[in-house]
Amino acid sequence: MAVQRFVIIGGGIVGLATALELLERQPGSSVTVLEKEARTGNHQSTHNSGVLHAGLYYKPGSRKARLAVEGIRKMVRFCKENGIAHEICGKLVVATDAEEVGRLQTLLERGQQNGLRGLEWLERDAMREIEPHVAGIAAVRVPEEGIVDYRAVCDAMTRIISERSGRVEISAKVTRITPDAAGWKIAAGEREYPADFLINCAGLHCDRVGELAGEHPVDRILPFRGEYYQLRPDRSHLVRNLIYPVPDPKFPFLGVHFTRLIHGGIEAGPNAVLALAREGYTKTKISLPDLADALSFPGLWQFMAKYPRMCWDELLRSFSRRLFAQSLRKLVPEVQESDLMPGGAGVRAQAISPGGELVQDFSILHRPNALHLLNAPSPAATASLAIGAEVAGMILGKTT
Q1: From 138's CA, which of 5, 161, 310, 399 has a CA 20 to 30 Å away?
Q2: Which of 153, 193, 149, 185 is nearest to 40 (CA)?
Q3: Closest C-alpha among 308, 156, 324, 179 to residue 256
Q4: What crossing angle do the helices spanning 63-82 and 150-163 adopt, rounded to 10°?
Q5: What's the rounded mean pLDDT across residues 225-239?
Q6: Using the 8-state DSSP alphabet, how is residue 246 labeled?
Q7: CA nearest to 208, candidates 304, 279, 301, 285
Q8: Is the entire prediction scored with pTM above 0.85?
């Protein structure tokens, strides 16, 4: 095999999973992961709700659908083999009115097409046996869904890469990518890394890394911050596991929901507001270059024109615990504003077209000596091992 030196830019869960797969398939190759932070998995990989997504929502035949279904099974196996905290607790997707019942039926059929096992349609009494405080008139139970400690997953992947003679370089921010006769020279920190094959798994910065490598991505990454609350410990009994709404097709995001965390507590959220920095986990974090980049992109304005009500509602909810609680009461009516404590936040790296459409599927650009993963939002953490297998198969010319 001519390609021996692989350099992966981005030490998030997808970059790490890709490194593992390459080392598994080509044990003699050189695999280096370059991570700009002082620890792997510091962004989307661990700033999320910790859910194992089984593939219910995604269009049949799409990469998301296929890799989520494959990925959750791979991830559960990885957690078992490495002693990582996880639990397959199941999820309820709840319809609260007659209009949502029809959409819920479509979701059930979609999940069945995607190969999910054990899906159940539940009427009101049956769903309340599982979640006694839930509202609604019908639900689909997704028994394969669960929760996991993604921080522990990233740490385990990092350790295993080193054990297999791969390298993970931290505090190694890529500043320059130069093609040469052998492939690439990649400048990161004070060092330069030669590569026969470049793999871009840079998440929130994947479009910029693509540009450094000479690509001109049409779509742009826009950062959407998702803010969470947690239920007060004395009110955590209101939710046993995972409670999700039926997505509204008029809006591009899922809507607020309830998640039990693997190490205890109930999380409620997230909303979705444009972050003022690509790593803007708080309202006050502002990056003028990131903001200028977003505001100069026509796709942002087209998106806001398509979804003005949603954008306004999400912004109001970001500043109002009362409105946040009001949204949550659609699923669990007993939730009060006083039940909510501040939680964490994540930033979703979402590719958007110049026309303002969210890129719905995972997006992969494959070149003879490079591969760029240009859109990998949720469920990429769940699907990471399957994405790594997909990427390795494309690079090595083998099916996964």
Answers
A1: 310
A2: 153
A3: 324
A4: 80
A5: 97
A6: P
A7: 279
A8: yes
